[in-house]
Design a protein that fits this description.
Blueprint: H1 4-11, E1 16-19, E2 22-24, H2 31-47, H3 64-76, H4 85-100, H5 102-118, E3 122-125, E4 148-153, E5 156-167, E6 174-177, E7 192-197, E8 203-209, H6 223-226, E9 229-241, E10 245-248, H7 254-291, H8 297-322, H9 335-360, H10 363-366, H11 370-374, H12 379-386, H13 394-408, H14 411-422, H15 426-437, H16 440-450
Parallel strand pairs: 1-8, 3-6
Antiparallel strand pairs: 1-2, 4-5, 5-9, 6-7, 7-10, 8-9
Helix pairs in contact: 1-2, 4-5, 4-7, 7-8, 7-9, 7-13, 8-9, 9-15, 12-13, 13-14
This protein binds flavin-adenine dinucleotide.
Length: 459
Amino acid sequence: MLTGERYRESLRDGRVVILDGRRVDDVTKAPELAGAIDWVADTYDRYVSTPSGAHPMYDIPASVGDLRRRIEVLLDCDMTASLSAAVLALASSRSPLSAADTRYGERIDVFIEECRRNDWRVAEAITDAKGDRMLPPSKQHDPDAYLRVVERRPEGIVVRGCKMHITAAPLVHEIVVLPTKQMKRGEEDYAVAFAVPANTPGLTTVAVTTAPRQRDERDFPVSRHHAVPDGTLLFDDVFVPNERVFLAGEVEHSSTLAHALGTWERTSSIAGSAREADLLVGLAQLVAESNGIERVPHIRDKIAELIIYATMVRAGVEAALNAAYGEGDDLRPDELFTNVTKCFASMHYHSMLRNLQDIAGGLVLTAPSHADLDDEEIGDQLRRYLQASPSMSGTDRLRIFHAVRDLTADALGGWHMVAKIMSGGGMYAQKMVARNHFDMAAARRSAAQAIGLDLPTRP
Ligand SMILES: Cc1cc2nc3c(=O)[nH]c(=O)nc-3n(C[C@H](O)[C@H](O)[C@H](O)COP(=O)(O)OP(=O)(O)OC[C@H]3O[C@@H](n4cnc5c(N)ncnc54)[C@H](O)[C@@H]3O)c2cc1C
């Protein structure tokens, strides 16, 4: 297994990364990526002596207990751990893909074993550029709007296109590419799944990050450690050897992978949301105390709403795990509970931020910096006026406000606001799954019975 230092070395592999319009020759030297790399390296160091010889993020859950352990591991690790959802999606899809071509299943097994043995981190690359949203891949004005196979050779395939919004792309070893949705007949070239190393020729990662830039890190207590880089991946005629091709043309299986990724990705997401929600509750309580208003009825009411949100999200996670279905390699959290919880967390997140910011007040945006407090002439005055109650110093109160701004009203806060809505395919995708899995027939029946109606036939 890799140590943090060996992880850093492994990133110096000639990968092509562009950040803010400049080529980054060595990602470990880019200050904008330093916090995120430190975060991943710290996970490596903490898990280097795992008894099984592989990071537990790659353990394929076979029981509800395993699912619970997976969640605990994800929450204990950096942002790349949840991306192992891509590997679990491959494992869950192994049987159906093997039915199409036994070599797909064998290659999946080999790839998963390599991820474990080499202690790799992977990115999940599913979202295409997509062009005109109302047109299918084969009818787009630009045929590469969805990533596709442009050449088939005896030893592999050549792919072209773009995958967007790919979390942690500049920091991982392997990019797992999956088709974004169900492809139809005539769209065989778009039904493609594979894995390539991050430094593979023809692949360029255009990176963005929520890391604080050239500012005092004390003012960014969350994002200085937990910044999230994302990437736009340009595949400019990338060759993929057969050993790494998991699907290449069988349109009927394109949604198998997208579906499996959706479940695993949304499970990680709701577990993260439950923890974030607890953090919002804690911050709301702290900031209320720092302002001396924690007993005011409307403040207590807003904190109660935050508690209800946090508890409902946690209950949804519990329900999804307890109602897991399938067996062996294909045990999955319950899809209805997972998707409904994901959608619920997304729908109400912004109102919860509103509660927190309303409790906190304008200092969320206008708090002086820690450097201002260091100033010999005005530091004491600032500390004096920042103090609101005898039980908390002005400096501690300032730290709370910077945390609220960093998490809810600055670059990382903006990332969370958009990611909460769009990640895992957006609320529309979760509502579709909810409709598909909800027992509508039973609901109709009981409604009809309740009002004494002969069950009307469906149109
Ligand atoms: C911070 C962040 C991290 C992400 N990480 C990853 C990642 O690691 N890997 C990955 O693959 N993806 C990732 N995503 C992508 C995420 O899954 C997508 O944002 C999501 O699938 C929506 O795609 P889009 O952004 O292109 O928006 P669009 O698909 O353009 O959606 C925008 C709106 O248009 C609606 N819409 C779109 N098409 C139609 C249609 N045909 N009919 C009706 N309405 C339509 C949608 O419902 C939505 O309301 C990430 C996104 C974010 C914001």
